[in-house]
Amino acid sequence: MARKENSEYVLSTSDEELRRLGIQHGLWLAHARKLWWKAGFGGSDRLLDIGCGPGYTSIDLSRFAGPKASVTAIDTSEKFLGHLNQRIQNEGFHQIQTHRSTLEDLALKKKDYDGAYCRWVLCFVKDPKHCLEKISSHLRPGAIFALQEYVDYGSMALYPEPGVLPTVVEAIFKSWRARGGDPDVGQGLPKLLEQTGFRVRHLRAVSRIARPTSKLWKWPDTFYASFVPELVKTGFLDQKSADTFFVQWKKASRESSSFFYAPSVMNIIAEKV
User: Fold this and answer.
1) pTM of the entire structure?
2) SS3 letters across the chain
């Protein structure tokens, strides 16, 4: 989710990013489905998809919840919402509605939704507590809020030869926080949820390892291809370090002994009190 079409999205809303987000969603879909199942989404639930982006999650959340459920997909990118609206029209997902808004300014007419879901959204906002208050204000008592957010972004690592990846990770942290976000937002979410009208029912850390021959390797591979040049462009990383990183990453991608430890994610299920 972002305030402006291009300036606030960490990786813009380009066609390249559209494809990358599709790859990312596919690689994390199984984990999202498990969380939706544990949250109990389905039946005739009216659900919010917070920070839906191009709507890959909205479509699959709608499929999961079933034809009697409805999904309101919220994002600020006109381009991404246009992509989702086109899919809704072409594929007949008329139980999905879209709404363009920042999370900070969210003000839907309905205030009694049965559930909400977001993934990697609160880590990008300047005031997570305010955003949680906005979400809480749109849920009925007893509604379920399911979240997936980073809890230890610095755990991201490449083995057995990390090379300059720690330098790249440090630059990512600086870039992220310069925009007002917090890559480790999950560490404070249980307390913030309790402060904004929720009772935390479930916490679980998700740690994943990718090897060069695994599908999951595409996740860091496509991310670095898009974001490392952006770090150079914005002055958070020097060109020499970027060039060195890509040489080392390509080398690691060819070696079967290499593995990538993905940044830890926290699954949370909270109930509106």
Assistant:
1) 0.94
2) CCCCCCCCCCCCCCHHHHHHHHHHHHHHHHHHHHHHHHHCCCCCCEEEEECCCCCHHHHHHHHHHCCCCEEEEEECCHHHHHHHHHHHHHHCCCCEEEEECCCCCCCCCCCCEEEEEEECCHHHCCCHHHHHHHHHCCEEEEEEEEEEEEEEHHHCEEECCCCCHHHHHHHHHHHHHHCCCCCCHHHHHHHHHHHCCEEEEEEEEECCEECCCCHHHHHHHHHHHHHHHHHHHCCCCCHHHHHHHHHHHHHHHHCCCCEEECCEEEEEEEEEC
